[in-house]
Write a structure and sequence with these properties.
Elements: H1 2-11, H2 14-18, H3 20-37, H4 41-59, H5 70-77, H6 90-123, H7 128-143, H8 153-167, H9 172-178, H10 191-228, H11 234-239, H12 242-258, H13 263-280, H14 284-299, H15 304-316, H16 320-333, H17 338-359
Helix pairs in contact: 1-7, 4-5, 4-6, 6-10, 7-8, 10-12, 12-13, 13-14, 14-15, 15-16, 16-17
Length: 360
């Protein structure tokens, strides 16, 4: 694509007419290669990442999950067990993290740059250097349809430097060597462009403000719930008043509604369900605790205590197989923890005792 742009600005569209059969043959070869590439497992995994990113955009269309939050949020939207740092599409990543507002602002900026380049090319023919820079920019953008190289600082810096060199206009290099200024006049923003720019800035500020407010309110509810109830020991589970547990459940629930991506909020609510099980004896509270602890584990997959607590709940349900599995996951997160190893030995012994009793 970058080469096509270079050829267009260097020789005009006549070159595509003159050598149309060559370009058609190249297009057919590229399509055939793409069809063969689709059979590879890596392509299938990237398509799954795209679908997960689209689900993210669908759930949070306006302001997204937050800049740099794709990796954390992807655990909730992924279709398989495969985790990913990026969706392998920079434009999808912008939409997922900053919403359609952020993506729209970026695309609008690129549109305005293209419009400015078209204006400059009409005034005077672009130099070979500028055509090469333009082709490089198009190639980078085209590559980002299937990759994330603009998330890499070195590539991002190069991209913006290329844009800066390009929009200065024809004759910039020559005038800079002579110590003069560019002869290209500055363009003023029209009413529509001013309106679009004002709208983009307003939406961005509102988005950031709403996001910060939601996070602050979520943390406030979490702290209130934590003040009412927090797991410390078994006595704490039993002695907590029922009224306090109900209030804590409400506060933790509100925190999750405002920020469902925070593992600690789910962990706090799981503790409330566990305490209600100890007080009231209903096994359904254990199921609720398992759901919340699984949510916490998905969002912080490398934190051992979450796995250990999940193992403890399964032990209460007498499901020793799953209890051992999650305790092994806790050990994988913290191999130096001797308590985890002791617990897994106890669980293995209890499971064997239960098997012996059932056989007899």
């Amino acid at each position: 694509m970058g080469i096509c742009v270079i050829l267009y600005f260097k020789h005009g569209k006549q070159i595509f007419v003159k050598f149309r059969y060559i370009f058609i043959a190249l297009a057919v070869v590229i399509v055939v290669l793409l069809l063969f590439t689709l059979k590879q497992l890596q392509v299938y995994n990237r398509l799954l990442c795209w679908w997960g990113a689209l689900r993210m955009v669908y759930q949070r269309p306006l302001i997204g999950v937050g800049l740099g939050g794709f990796e954390t949020a992807y655990a909730r939207y992924k279709l398989t067990g495969l985790n990913s740092l990026y969706p392998y599409n920079y434009f999808l990543q912008l939409a997922a993290e900053m919403g359609v507002v952020g993506l729209g602002a970026f695309l609008w900026f690129l549109f305005m740059v293209g419009k400015h380049i078209k204006f400059l090319s009409k005034r005077s023919k672009l130099s070979s250097f500028e055509i090469g820079v333009l082709g490089s920019i198009v190639a980078i953008l085209f590559h980002n349809l299937t990759d994330y190289n603009l998330c890499i600082p070195a590539n991002a810096i190069l991209f913006w430097v290329f844009l800066g060199l390009l929009i200065t206009g024809p004759g910039f290099l020559e005038s800079s060597r002579k110590g003069g200024n560019s002869a290209v006049p500055r363009q003023r923003l029209g009413k529509i462009n001013k309106l679009l720019l004002t709208g983009a800035i307003t939406f961005s500020i509102l988005g950031v403000g709403v996001g910060i407010t939601r996070l602050s309110l979520a943390n406030r509810h979490y702290q209130l719930g934590k003040h009412l109830f927090e797991i410390r020991n078994i006595e704490n589970l039993v002695k907590t008043e029922r009224e306090d547990l109900e209030k804590a459940e409400f506060e933790y629930g509100r925190a999750i509604e405002l920020d469902s991506l925070n593992s600690w909020y789910h962990h706090g609510l799981a503790g409330v369900y566990l305490a209600r099980y100890w007080r009231e004896g209903y096994s359904s509270y254990l199921d609720e605790a398992i759901i919340e602890l699984r949510e916490a584990v998905e969002r912080m997959p490398y934190y051992g205590p979450f796995y250990a607590n999940l193992s403890y709940v399964y032990e209460l349900k007498k499901d020793y197989k799953k209890a051992i599995f999650y305790m092994e996951s806790a050990i994988a997160c913290d191999r130096q923890n001797g308590d985890y190893r002791q617990r897994i030995s106890e669980l293995a012994g209890r499971m064997q005792t239960r098997i012996d009793v059932e056989n007899n």
